[in-house]
Description:
Elements: E1 3-5, E2 8-10, H1 13-21, H2 25-29, H3 36-52, H4 56-70
Antiparallel strand pairs: 1-2
Helix pairs in contact: 1-4
Amino acid sequence: MRTYVGQQQAVSAEDFAELALGTPVELWLGVEGESDEERAARLDAARDILADDPNLPDDLIRIAAQIIEDNPDLFDVIPLAHPARRRSVRKGVAA
């Protein structure tokens, strides 16, 4: 099944989010290893975009929910068994 946003084909969840938002996903999530200056510039740009479109957070949540619903394998999580807690034994001398 192919997914299109406008006339552009989205081949991954990231493509879909970028095409739907009209901005790169990295603008909202950041990139690994970015400097403090790069982060500040990215956040300033994001604030400007949010100021221009106050409905964008709701749209983003709706898009993220749709991506998760359409691609449940993105979150194939296997719950880990919790090991039994050990009680610590206090050893001491009674007075």
